[in-house]
TrEMBL record:
It comes from the Eukaryota. SUPFAM superfamilies: Cupredoxins. The lineage of its organism: Eukaryota, Viridiplantae, Streptophyta, Embryophyta, Tracheophyta. PROSITE patterns: PHYTOCYANIN. GO terms for molecular function: electron transfer activity. One of its GO terms (cellular component) is plasma membrane. InterPro entries: Cupredoxin (IPR008972), Phytocyanin-like (IPR039391), Phytocyanin_dom (IPR003245). Residues 20-118 form the Phytocyanin domain. This is Early nodulin-like protein 22. Coiled coil: none annotated.
Length: 123
């Protein structure tokens, strides 16, 4: 009986979290006018939270791996978005985002690394 009570409490803690919706870059959006990594600093991201990327057609956003983030390249395993208003749900752990358009914009700072932790337990 105790096992089932503990299991139920753990299940509720995991499934009762309401994801947070973040507008990347706030009113500036996904744009090189601000530091994307600076925008993310101080925020506590959790798996399941949603990042909304708003940008004009001069840019895009790609989910890449660590190597793609470090070297600013999109590989066959990357996921690219170009709609200008994309909602991306954070996975648990490291999440890497870059803009591959225009060329060299990523190297200029239009990239962001976010570590999403487990959702907090319900209170």
């Amino acid at each position: 009986m105790l096992f089932f009570m503990v299991f139920e409490l753990q299940y509720e803690a995991i499934h009762s979290y309401t994801p947070v919706h973040y507008m990347v870059g706030d009113e500036d959006g996904w744009d090189p006018v601000i530091s994307m990594q600076g925008w993310a600093q101080g925020k506590h991201f959790h798996a399941g939270d949603v990042l909304e990327f708003k940008y004009d057609d001069a840019f895009d956003v790609s989910i890449v791996d660590k190597a793609g983030y470090d070297d600013c390249f999109v590989s066959d395993t990357s996921i690219q978005f170009s709609d200008g208003d994309d909602n991306i749900t954070l996975a648990f752990g490291a999440n890497y985002f870059i803009s591959s358009l225009p060329t060299n914009i990523c190297a200029g700072g239009m990239k962001m690394a976010i570590n999403a932790t487990a959702p907090p337990p319900s209170v």
